[in-house]
Amino acid sequence: MKAIFSPGPSFSDPEVRKHAGWVHIFDLYKKGLEELGYDVFIPSINEQVLDTTCTVSKILSYDLFAAQQMPDNADLFLGPPGYSVAQMMKLGNRVKKFLFVFNNADWWRDKQLEQEYKDQNAFYDMSQSWRWINKTALLKCDHVISCSPWVQWTHAEVVGKDKVSIAFWGVDSEKFHPGPEEPPGFNVLFVGGDPIRKGLKYLVEGLPFPLETHGIELWIAGGDFFYRVEGVRQFGMVPHDQMPGIMQQCHVICIPTLEDGIALAIQEGMACGLVPITSPETAEVFDDEVSGFKVGYRDAFDIHKRIIQLRDDSQLRRTMSQEARNKAVSQPWSMTKEQFKRIIQEKMELWGGYD
């Protein structure tokens, strides 16, 4: 049996490999296909030939170069919507086509972010061409593998619920674990490369300034967000293997994201014993008011209330910290791989893909 796995340019990008924890999912999918008995073919793309002048040109140049390499004999294709249209057209109906989705469908992304970017005088990188590519790929595939119930719901609005399954993302709880002792002070961690999408504005609005007089520090890992005030520490882009050391020095991880699908940093923070505060779609990984707090979108007041509650009630914080750790440990990457394998196997058997 042969599987074509075309993960896009991030798969081999050393900078993505260095900084993004989610890139691990590519290796997991490849290994899962191999464990099912597939000979896995991955298109070989020279990064220097890609047209990177804009997002759409990068997508299309990768997809077209990969399409030229499609083998004549294969059983299934697996790739992301944005990078797969030309390849799926080349393969036609002779190969069953799976797409994996890490984020919500475009209609939900637009609903949550388009006006938000305009309000913050920022460019919203979502052209009509990009929307067409994503929707066309989804409509041409045989099945979609999502990373959470929320992502499943947004894509089910496009392709139908029966066409979308879930392989929940996991966490490496051996790499991400609490430090040897509780850190001093009260440190709130924000992680994210896109401050608008991740809701940093609403976290900052929910904090009591000046922070030092309230016994709080805000730690920001990701881009440079220019909050040059006392009590705010910025780390810039942090290599993924250094994130556990930062998380182990904090008490709370707050990512009030506006659109995420699933926030891997929330699960990694929970594994380190941080109490998560996040919005509804990313709160699916914990039990509200037991192992974390779910807050409404753009709800700075609720964020403020939960941060002060955790600062003032150290016993509650310790209890929720342990519950968060327990919840994270129960969701390992091995679980994700087994769910992924089961989806592939069940669908291929249903379609007569196995003898």
Return the structural class: alpha/beta
Give me the CATH architecture of the largest domain, please. Answer: 3-Layer(aba) Sandwich
Biggest β-sheet description:
6 strands, parallel
Task: Say what the CATH topology of the largest domain is.
Answer: Rossmann fold
Report the radius of gyration as a whole number of Å: 21 Å
Full CATH superfamily name of the largest domain:
Glycogen Phosphorylase B
Q: Please tally the helical runs, counting DSSP H or I stretches of 4 or more residues.
A: 13
Mean pLDDT over the full residue set? 94
Q: In percent terms, what proportion of residues is strand?
A: 5-15%
Question: What does this entry look like structurally?
Answer:
The chain has 355 residues and is α/β, with parallel strands linked by helices. The chain folds into two domains: 2-170 and 333-350, 3-Layer(aba) Sandwich (Rossmann fold); 187-329, Rossmann fold. Helices cover 40% and strands 14% of the residues. The strands form two sheets. A six-stranded parallel β-sheet has the order 2-1-3-4-5-6, sandwiched between helices. Strands 9-8-7-10-11-12 form a six-stranded parallel β-sheet, with helices on both faces. The N and C termini lie close together (11 Å).
